[in-house]
Amino acid sequence: MSAILDHLPEFWQGLIVTLQLTAASFAGAAVMGLVITAMRVSPVGVLRGIGTAYVETFQNLPLLVLLVLAVFGLPEIGIKAGLLETAIVVIALYEAAYIAEALRSGVNAVSAGQGEAARALGLTFSQSLRHVILPQALRTVIQPLGNVFIALTMNTSLAAAVGVVDLTAAANRVNLMEAQPIPIFVGAGLAYALIAACAGFVTGRLERRLVMVR
Amino acid sequence: MVSMKRMAAVAAVSMIGLSACSGTDSGSPAVPGEAKGGDLLAKAPVAAAADILPGSTMEKIKQRGELIVGGSLDAPLLSQQNPTTGEVEGFDADMGKALAKYIIGEPKVKIVNSASETREALLSNGTVDVVFQTYTITPERAEQVAFAGPYYSSGLTLAVRKGTSGIAKPEDLNGKTVIAGANTPAIPAIKKLAPQAKIVTFGSDPECMQALKQERGDAYVQDETLLIANAQKDPSIQVVGQPFTTDPYGIGLKHGDDQFKKFVNDWLKKTQAAGLWQQTWKNSIGTVVQGEAPAPPQIGSVPGS
C-alpha cells in the first residue's frame, strides 16, 4: 500500500495526462466521427466511398501500429509534433471510425419517413440532417457512444508505449523502483475503472433523460 | 505530393518500430561475430546427481526437462533472437542455457519474454523458474524476489548525436530532454543526478535509438554495453564519458527458496572457476568491449543478493 501512497504525486500527474488524452481525443473523435457519418449518408457517391474507406481503414488497423507509425514514421517525412499531441490526434482519428459507426446505426434507426418529410418541406440535405435526422439519431446512440468513450479511455494507455507519461507509464515507473506490481497495477486499474464507471453513470443519466419512446 | 521514396522510408521505419514491439528484430543481427555458444555449452558442467535434492526446485525442473527463463528477445549482446536461426543469443541467454545444462544435462530452455514490470509477479507465481534479464539487484526488489549472484556488473552511460556539445556527464542533462528505456534503472539514476532533466521513455532499445536520431531528446541513457553496440552499428551517434552507475545484475529466483539460491550460486562459482563465465563474456559483450574479460563480481557482495 505504501508503494502507492509514497508516489501519489506521480500517479496524480499520470492521471491528469490520461484525462487530458481522453478528453481531447474524444472531442476530436466526436467532431471527426460526425463528419464521417454525414459523408456516409450523403447523396454524393464519392463522399460515401471516402467515408466507408475511412471507417474500414481505421477499424482494421491496431491502434498501437498507428501510434508507432505516427511517432517514429512521420518525423522521417519532416512532420514532428510533441508526443502528447501526436497521441491525441492518432487516438482521435482512430476512435472517430467507431463513433461514426455508432452514429450511422443511429441514423439508420430514424425512420425513412422522417427524411422524406424533411425533403417534402423543402429542406436541403444538410438542413434535414441537422434539424431532423441527427437530433433523433443522437438520442438513440447515447449508450453506444458511452461505450466508445470507455473503450477510448482504456486505449489511451497505449500512448505509454510511445513515451507519453500517462497513468500506465506512471505506474510502470513507480513499479520499477518499488517492485510491487500487484498493488501498483491494481491501483492504476482501479483508477481506470473509476473513469469508466463515471462515464457509465453519465451516459445512463443522459439516456434516461433523452430517450425517445417509439 | 509525398514521393514514393518517402513513403517507403515511413514504411521501413514503422517496420523497425513494430518489430521492436513484437520483440523480434528483423534487422541485421546486432551481435557481431558468430555465435560460439555451442562448443562452450559442451564444456559446461552438469550437477552431480546428489546435488539435485529430492523435492527441490531443481528436481522439478529436471523432471520437466526444460528450464523456463524470464528474459528478453530484443537486447543486443545480452539476449536477442537471431532472425535467421531463431536462436536467442547473448550473455544472458548463454548463461541461462548453461544453467539449464547444469540442472537437466542438456541446455534446454524456454524463454518467456518477460517485461520489467512483470518479472516479480512471474517469479512469485511460478510462471518462470529464473530471470536472466539485466535484473539489477536492489534492496526493494530483494523484498519480493531472491537474487543469486551478482553474475555481472554493468553501468549506465550516455549517448548523443554526433556533434552534440555540452553533454559530457550526467549533471549536464539538467534542463535537457533525456531518452531512457521504459522500466530501466536509467530513470531513477537520471532523477537523482539531474533532477531538472525531462525524461521521455520508449519501450525498447531500437525505439529509443530512433527517438534520439529524430531529436526527441538530447541524450539517451542506457547500459554501456548496449550503447557501444549501437554506436558501432550507427555512426551518427556517439557514446560520451564513462559509466556513472554500478548496476549489479542478479539471477532472479522465487522469494524464500534458499535451497535453489544456494544451488544456483554454486553453479555460478563453478562456471566462473572453470573460465566459462569469461568465455561467455568474450563471445557476447567482449565482441564490442575492448580488452580481456573483467573479473566477475563477488557472489553475495551486493545488498539484496
TrEMBL record, chain A:
It is a multi-pass membrane protein. Gene3D superfamilies: MetI-like. InterPro entries: AA_ABC_transptr_permease_3TM, ArtM/GltK/GlnP/TcyL/YhdX-like, MetI-like, MetI-like_sf. The chain crosses the membrane at residues 12-36, 57-75, 81-100, 148-170, 182-204. It is found in: Cell membrane. PROSITE patterns: ABC_TM1 (PS50928). Residues 15-203 form the ABC transmembrane type-1 domain. This is Glutamate transport system permease protein. It comes from Streptosporangium brasiliense.
UniProtKB/TrEMBL annotation, chain B:
This is Glutamate transport system substrate-binding protein. Pfam families: SBP_bac_3 (PF00497). The keyword Transport applies. The keyword DNA-binding does not apply. The lineage of its organism: Bacteria, Bacillati, Actinomycetota, Actinomycetes, Streptosporangiales. Transmembrane segments: none annotated. Residues 66-288 form the Solute-binding protein family 3/N-terminal domain. CDD domains: PBP2_GluB.
